[in-house]
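S1.2 Input.
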Amino acid sequence: MRVIESFDDDVRVIENVWIPMSDGVRLAARVWLPVGSADHPVPAVLEYMPYRKRDFTRLRDEPLHHYFAGHGYAAIRLDVRGTGDSEGILRDEYLAQEQDDAEEAIAWIAEQSWCNGRVGMIGLSWAGFNALQVAARQPPALKAIITMCSTDDRYADDAHYKGGCLLNENLTWGAAFFSLNACPPDPEIAGEPWREQWLERLAHNRLFPALWMRHPHRDDYWKQGSVCEDYSAIQCAVYAVGGWADGYVNAIPRLMAGLQAPRKALIGPWPHAFPHAAEPGPRIGFFQEAVRWWDYWLKEEENGIMDEPLIRAWMEDWIAPAPRHDERPGRWVAETEWPSPRITPRTWHLNVLSLGDHPDPEDRMRLRSPQTTGLRAGDFYGFGAEGDAPMDQRTDDGKSLVFDSDPLSEPVEMLGTPVVTLELACDTPLAHVIVRLNDVAPDGASGRVSYGVLNLAHRDSHERPAPLVPGQRYRITVRLNDMAYRFAPGHTIRLAISSAYWPIIWPAPERSEITLITGASTLALPLRPPRPEDDQLPAFGPPERCPIPTHTILETAEPERSIAVDLTNDETTYTAFGDAGDVGGAALARIEDIDLTLGSTMRRVFRIQEQDPLSAEAVIEQETRFQRGDWAVRIDARIRLTADAEHFFIQAILDAYENGARVASREWNEAIPRLLL
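S1.3 Output.
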């Protein structure tokens, strides 16, 4: 990767700037300014999120924001209220208060002597969410956003629920947020009140996974911050960026179809990561692409970016499943409209164990998957770490009903949403259906292309779910994740259907037998004909960035990901361990320029017995440390989730230590009704 160390205009970094809110709370920002902005004001780019601008994201922030400042922008990295060095209390994600604060911060930025009044927002994940949410508020100074790995629908496509099923990511992300919310401000920024602010954060911390589990349906709680409720509210320009390996990719095509504002989309093979450094690649010059966007919308430079196609996407080719891929084979393709009139559905019929061009007479196949189906799924969204991508699917295929096409005689290229329509009946009022689209190579290896899940109680509505009538026949639709994929000649298209997907989703309360009606069920794939203009798409520049701050790794966090089976009780344990911060994969590292040692690790353990969904258990443990001189803070958190047929049970312990002495200890023990989950 090319490292840019100097620019035509020098960059001045202000370690902390207080942005006052109307209620007296001060938000903490780190600011990068072109030196020339003192005499010639420039546009500003804001990134706004809770992940601690001073320390945990410092190694990521510096290369990005210094780069923007070097290209003539004021770059601002702002901590959300109650996080990092910002004052106040953070009570939940994506609250209206967060968006109110953002509007005030944008107005403050636009009025500064170094800003010309034009502001953009950029962000990945949380910061990408709030860029969309704030854009819907229409602050006058906000002219454009870049939203990465985010969503327009907080219920349908976030880390909590998918298809009406409870994601275990709700617990994993909730545990991370729980720990993050317990971290103190830096005494060098907050001064003497740091300890009082820290104790206040600890006293008001919430067991976030439980909070989210008390909203199992798509109610007003989830509609707040879901911009799909009114796409027309967003009037500034939107650049939506993501990757096929991310959990949030479905939002990008919806945004392109729903927004009326100027918009563009870029989807690579990437996970939940910036495109210049993501694995799998190809990695691209994303910083240059972002500057092109800002130059057009914030400096009004005619550079042709809006003359390019609406959607640019990486068309993936087959690659043998492996724990990690440096590169994903494929090519860039583009569409000028979305939905594209060029793309049409191609229907296959689910016949007995086969995909056919025509339906056979109706037949019945029974499905009752073991609870361990899904162990080769990888993570809900990966970050490019070893083992977080889906592995060879043959083990999970063997626990599912599979329907194979004949080996293909010519390539089949797709872009969009696979849709599966199933005729079925079930012997229980609650059940899950999981559908995977796989590519089977001539040697038998099975690679997951896309998947979808559905809580059958949500077959008609996420807002008003209803139990099944056992034995009654239903026609249900499962929408799989959007994808761009090319099946090669000689390969087989496989559809695999199961009733469990552990540890991606929490199991239904009892084992169900689903009767699938073959001959009446279908798979529709979005076929994309070749587009000759794709060969003339302009190439992205090579990846580049500014230098990363000097840091020293003191303790490594060797990644662990394993599956163990206890043959005495038929229990399978899935364990994952690694760093939970953003300090180069370290369990503990020293950031030299702020004289701070910090680190965080997380262990995730998921247990279940082969035939008993009520045996499911998930445990998340996280340790976070800060140290400077004789000041040392440690936060230990543990959350455990179990369930019976009627309730979820969630227990948590949070212990906080200062210089080895425990200063706070809190426990939670909650029972949450299973409302059609």
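S1.4 Remarks. The chain has eleven helices and 36 strands.
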